[in-house]
Every structure is written in structure tokens, then in C-alpha cells.
Fold:
Amino acid sequence: MSTFVLVPGFWLGAWAWQDVTAALRADGHEVHPVTLTGLADRAHLIGPEVDLETHTADIVGLIEAADLRDVVLVGHSGGGLPVTQAADRIPDRIARVVYVDSAPLPDGVSQFDTNPPEEQERTRGLVRDGQLPPPAWDPTADPENLAGLDEPALALLRERATPQPLRTATDPVRRTGGRAVPTTLVACTFPVDVVRSMIDQGVPMFAELAGADIHGLPTGHWPMLSEPKRLADLLDSIASA
Structure:
């Protein structure tokens, strides 16, 4: 049995892990899906003070309050940012970090920094009251990221996704340079050979995955909804190894 802490990406809450959580628990694992401050059932807590440090404290606080150890800490998409910081703060409690279609950003780099200037400008134009609204979840406009999602899954995203606190995307990751923990990548929207090529080329978003275990799960960017059983099985095998 392993202990999983599951951190969702932008706009999502613990609800997004429901099917993955059920499958992992059926395999005998202890599973803690997380809703970060200001999102989903904690949306009432959103405000200008909610930042990347807030979300990091959410994760660290959960792990320490429950006295969890040998944790397999899973970060999906933008959830990889606070996961990176949390693993840096409490490495002695973390057995492995698993990035699901995400990556450990270098110190001083924010999620916004990974986008070209024109994309940053477009995104900032969408911001309202310090909040980044969810996308339209339109597969005709974003077929690659939304691949594998059926209409009920898309409807669920449209119904339950909530605005993301902007500072969680614009604040840079801060790392102390402490003890590193074993790292795994689950690559969904990028083929594994492409990821390995970007690692070899030193692409900043992937450079720190050098030496990491890499597994392919070909689907869209939200595999907990498009391929929950396959994702759960993969997480189970990663933890078991």
C-alpha cells in the first residue's frame, strides 16, 4: 500500500480525481485528493492574497497535519508548481513526485514564463479581479488538450471548473536547493520520445526531468477524466516499483 496525495491543475478541485481516487483505493492505497485554496468547494476563499505560496502551504499542511510519510505526491498540470515547492520543503516525507503532463520548473520561473509574450498578453486580457477564468472546454478550438474527453466529461468541466487565482500562475517557483526526491513524468500530450529530446536539448521546462522515470499515457491534458483507470493503474505501478 502507498500513500497518494493528488493535486489537480488549474481550475479544478479534488472532484477531478474522483475516479482515480476510487480505483487507487480499490487497490488498497491511501489516497488524499486535494482542493487548493480558492478553487471548487473552497472557491469562497479566493482573493488577491491567494498565491503560489498559499497553495504550497495547503499541500504541506495536509501532509504534516495527517502525519503522512513516504508520500507519492502527484501534481497535474499547473498543480506541479506547488507540488515542486512542497517537495522541496518537506523532502523527508516524500517518496516520489509524479508530474502528470507537468514538469518541475526551475527556481525563479513562473507558469506564465513558459508562454511566449503574445500568449501572456492574451491571457492577462482575460483576467478579472485577479482571477483567471476557466477555458470554454471547446474541443473544436482545443482538440489536442481535450482529446479523449466525452461530452459528459466536458459538461462536468464546464459546470465545476472555477476561476484560478492569478498569482498562482505569475508567482515564480522558489526552491531551496535541498535534497531532491525521485521524480516521474506521466506524459500525455507529448510523446515520450519528444519529451526525451527536449530534455536532451535543455528546454527549461523539461531540463530538470533529466534522470526521471518517464511513462507515456497518450490522451489529452486531463487524463484523470479521459483515462482515469489507465492513469490509476499507471500510478499504482509507479508506486509499486
Remarks:
- The chain has a mean pLDDT of 95.
- DSSP finds ten helices and eight strands in the chain.
